[in-house]
Automatic annotation (TrEMBL):
It catalyses: ATP + protein L-histidine = ADP + protein N-phospho-L-histidine. Residues 428-649 form the Histidine kinase domain. The modification 4-aspartylphosphate is found at D720. This is Sensory/regulatory protein RpfC. InterPro entries: CheY-like_superfamily, HATPase_C_sf, HATPase_dom, His_kinase_dom, HisK_dim/P_dom, HisK_dim/P_sf, HPT_dom_sf, PAC. The keyword Hydrolase does not apply. It comes from Flavobacterium glaciei.
Length: 925
């Protein structure tokens, strides 16, 4: 199999091509494809035929080995393309038919032999008739005929072998079909690209909305300019009237001179008004010659005043005849308004204008000429053009997105059945693994809170660290959907990096001693003691790398180094490296070792064991945190795996695992009912709840739990899901539907897949916590649920304070400035806010209930810009920003509900005030 570019150069080959030509792979790459055939021109013609027709089948050619050996082949090929449909080259499969031709020639020889046998039999018959004494010789010939039959059977066997070869070619065709499947995957990626295009379309729509505002503001400015022009005309007419009255008066020469002087001053004032206009203004006599102009006309034409005076007015337009017709229309109708024309600067620059003009007369009513005001609308036309273009593009992008959505929905339906089966398997495996891990990790934490020797503390920390790392690994393997989607989350907690890594490396001491290796630790003391990051994920990365190093190193040493690369006021960048003196990795294999279930070779797996997941998980843990993983290796000398990560600096102390949060006095008397069937887990829950200071009762299954609820009041239930007699789902349904109880119920689940979690919500459980139980998370969830009634009272109090103090939520000063006090534009902006805000609040609340953090963050982000426009306090704006940050990062999720309640109150208050402002503005129009 060979791939060839449009220039006829080989780009890739398989091992069969190397064997049939006798050339090395490097020698074949970039060489002329046609050089390896006995008939180069014929091979070139078949190659051209592929580009013309798209493919060819079974063209006979002869390949030439470098030592002269010839191989007859059937030439099959087709073009291959990129995502846009552009032809990138040709894929060739040359099928060896040398054996097939040999079999064909053998068939011809066999037929000839059969023909000769027929002739001999005829001759034998004649000899029998002629001479019976030759009967013995005829018997010998019959034996020879039997031997020929045996030879024919041997030939039939060889033909069967050829059919087996044909079957092998069918397998090769299936490989080509697999490659087509890969192209279909690429098509799915194009669907994602279309969704990205739809997102860009939304951005353009936002830009279009901004252009609408800018256009309306420009229109407002144009209205102001028209008003000023009208005032100039009125001032002119008033001046004419005054001059006419003064002419009628017969006064002394001195009075006439005084009147003349006053008229001169008035004329200068008029000229100053004309010059103050930013729009080109010009007066033209009845012959079409310019008599006067302002500075704006000088600037827009590039001519001097002297050059403009007495010049033909129409020479400065791109369409002179149209300008002349508009000029004549002024004389016929007395005025024209908003006639579109284009002025031309002397250097070629064009300016779109709206032509407004009216005649002016003397005191006797005789027309003296025309006054023209040309309003520059170039920017306005550009904005209008962009709006049209954006609208067209938006419609096109929407159509593409709709098609992509239909394709995506079809693909989703096909995938759902497979996902359901996988989820059920993951659900079962999760429960079976997490149940014993819950006891191991839980009791390790309990023992760590007791008095221990330093060695005991060290070993238990190692057990705990190992258990935590194992749980993280189990999470990654079981939750395949999360891994495939790249949606792993990372904690941001203060921790002591040096002691954390040291405790993790302690796990390898026994294995290191068994293999007589040396473990060297290099830690940069310039690294701050406490950093903010995810210690469990970091330890899992290093654990996987060190585990590989120990596995593949039989002698020498393993070095774990941690070095500070960069530090500023906020963060540090650290490089981690694990170096061994093991078997090393061939250079050509370093690219594939980070893929799922891949090792350097199949022999590696047989000799050293392993699933090939370790380095793949390392890559998935490093890259989402903004880091990168690198490898340097030499066969039989060793390997170095290194990666870089950034960590936030902090002044906080690292959290101690055995520290218990101080309980509020008012909630210490909490009564908890634990429903759990496994004795080890019962003991663990009793221990944890006793440490919290809560009172607790234990029920072995749902049926016993219901009996206890009927006899005694509890504040909250911790409900296991899988139990005998009555499981957690059945018990919760009974409590909600039969007993009509609203007591908070938290599920204790060993299944963290979406199957059981969705069912928990459906039957009425308030929350869930995954096994192994994290005592801090358990305490936080209990506290959060039992404090919700207090939160509702707090919100009610906040609302009452706002109403009592009559504190205004909005300030429209910025909106007033932004719209230039244009009432219509202000009303439009307020209407837009009133239309979009309530649906956004609804989306935020529903997303919180569904735990759809991506949608929640996006809705909060969309709301943020409107706060500054409507003059809502930055303190309230920061609430929306916190919601966006927490939801996007999926951290501090327990605080989001409180923030959403506050945000809803603020927005409702803002909407009420804006409705009142809208009415006030409307009444002023």
């Amino acid at each position: 199999m060979i791939t060839i570019n449009p220039e006829g150069k080989i780009t890739d080959v398989n091992e069969a091509t190397v064997n049939i030509t006798g050339m090395k792979r490097d020698g074949l790459i970039n060489s002329d494809f046609f050089n390896y055939f006995t008939e180069k021109q014929k091979a070139r013609e078949v190659y051209q035929e592929i580009f013309e027709k798209g493919s060819v089948s079974d063209s006979p050619l002869t390949l030439k080995h470098k030592d002269g050996k010839l191989t007859d082949v059937l030439f099959n090929g087709s073009v291959y393309k990129n995502d846009l449909g552009c032809v990138l080259g040709v894929v060739i499969v040359a099928r060896d038919i040398a054996e097939q031709k040999w079999a064909l020639n053998l068939g011809f020889a066999n037929k000839e032999l059969a023909h000769q046998n027929d002739e001999k039999e005829k001759r034998a018959a004649e000899l029998v008739i002629a001479n019976k004494e030759l009967a013995f010789q005829n018997d010998e010939k019959e034996k020879r005929a039997d031997e020929l039959i045996i030879a024919n059977k041997e030939l039939l066997f060889q033909n069967n072998e050829k059919e087996k070869r044909a079957a092998e070619l069918v397998v090769a065709n299936k490989e080509l079909a697999f490659q087509n499947d890969e192209k279909e995957k690429r098509a799915a990626e194009l669907v994602l690209a279309n969704e990205e295009l739809a997102f860009q379309n939304k951005v353009k729509e936002k830009r279009a909305a901004e252009l609408v505002i800018a256009n309306e503001e420009l229109a407002f400015q144009n209205d102001e300019k028209e008003k000023r022009a009208d005032e100039l005309i009125i001032a002119n007419k008033e001046l004419q009237f005054q001059n006419k009255e003064k002419a009628k008066q017969k006064i002394a020469t001195k009075e006439l001179e005084e009147l003349s002087y006053a008229a001169k001053l008035a004329s200068q004032y008029s000229l100053s008004l004309i010059e103050a206009s930013r729009d080109p203004l010009v007066t033209i006599n009845t012959n079409g010659k310019i008599t006067d102009m302002n500075e704006a006309l000088v600037n827009i034409t590039g001519m001097t005043r002297n050059e403009l005076t007495d010049s033909d007015f129409f020479d400065y337009f791109t369409e002179q005849q149209k300008a002349r017709e508009v000029y004549q229309e002024v004389f016929e109708k007395g005025s024209v308004a908003d006639s579109p024309l284009t002025l031309r600067h002397k250097d070629g620059k064009l300016t779109d204008v709206l032509f407004n003009g009216s005649v002016y007369k003397d005191d006797k009513g005789n027309v003296l000429g025309v006054v023209i005001v040309a309003r520059d609308v170039t920017e306005q036309k550009r904005i209008a053009s962009e709006l049209i273009e954006a609208h067209i593009f938006a419609e096109l992008a929407t159509e593409i997105a709709e098609k992509a959505k239909i394709n995506a929905e079809s693909a989703t339906i096909l995938a759902e059945n497979a996902v359901k089966a996988k989820q059920q398997f993951l659900s079962n495996m999760s429960h079976e693994i997490r149940t014993p891990m819950n006891a191991i990790i839980g009791f390790t934490k309990v023992i760590l809170k007791t008095e221990l020797t330093s060695k005991q503390q060290e070993y238990l920390n190692a057990i705990k660290m190992s258990g935590d790392a194992l749980i993280v690994l189990i999470n990654d393997i079981l939750d395949l959907a999360k891994v495939d989607a790249g949606k792993m989350t990372f904690e941001k907690t203060p921790f002591k990096m040096k002691s954390s890594i040291a405790a993790m490396l302690h796990l390898f001491e026994t294995k290191i001693q068994e293999k007589n290796l040396k473990l060297i630790r290099e830690y940069d003391n310039k690294i701050p003691d406490v950093l903010v990051g995810d210690p469990v994920r970091l330890n899992q990365i290093i654990l996987n790398l060190v585990s590989n190093a120990v596995k593949f190193t039989s002698k020498g040493k393993i070095t774990v180094s941690v070095h500070l690369l960069h530090e500023n006021d906020d963060k540090v960048i650290i490089e981690f490296a694990v170096t061994d003196t093991g078997i090393g990795i061939p250079k050509e294999k370093t690219g594939q070792i980070f893929e799922n279930f891949q090792q350097a070779s199949s022999g590696t797996s047989r000799l050293y064991g392993g699933t090939g997941l370790g380095l793949a998980i390392v890559k998935q843990l490093v890259e989402p945190q903004g880091g990168s993983i690198r490898v340097r290796s030499t066969v039989n000398e060793g390997s170095t795996f290194s990666f870089t990560l950034s960590f936030q600096k902090t002044s906080a102390e690292a959290e101690l695992e055995n520290e218990i949060m101080e309980l509020d006095i008012e909630i210490k008397n909490i009564k908890v009912l634990v429903v759990e069937d496994i004795p080890l887990n019962q003991l663990l829950m009793r221990t944890l709840l006793d440490d919290f200071g809560f009172s607790r009762d234990i029920a072995e299954n749902g049926k016993i739990a219901i009996e206890k609820l009927k006899e005694k009041d509890y504040d909250i239930i911790l409900m296991d899901l899988q139990m005998p007699e009555m499981n957690g789902f059945e018990a919760t349904e009974y409590i909600r539907n039969k007993m009509k109880s609203k007591i908070p119920i938290i599920a204790l689940t060993a299944d963290v897949t979406t199957v059981d979690l969705a069912k928990c919500k459906a039957v009425g459980m308030n929350d869930y916590i995954a096994k192994p139980i994290d005592e801090r998370l358990l305490y936080s969830k209990i506290l959060g649920i039992l404090k919700k009634p207090k939160l509702a009272k707090l919100t009610e109090k906040l609302t009452k304070n706002i109403e009592d103090k009559k504190i205004k939520c909005i300030d429209l000063v910025y909106l007033n400035q932004r719209t230039k006090s244009n009432p219509k534009l202000m009303m439009e902006m307020i209407s837009l806010y009133l239309a979009q805000t309530p649906p956004l609040i609804t989306t935020i609340k529903q997303s919180l209930e569904d735990k759809n953090w991506d949608l929640l963050g996006a809705a909060a982000h969309k709301m943020i810009p409107s706060f500054s426009i409507m003059g809502i306090s930055t303190n309230f704006e920061n609430i929306a920003k916190k919601i966006q940050v927490f939801a996007t990062a999926q951290e501090k999720l327990e605080e989001i509900e409180d923030l959403v309640i506050q945000l809803e109150e603020i927005c409702l208050q803002a909407c009420q005030e804006l409705q009142e402002e809208f009415k006030i503005i409307k009444n002023t129009i």
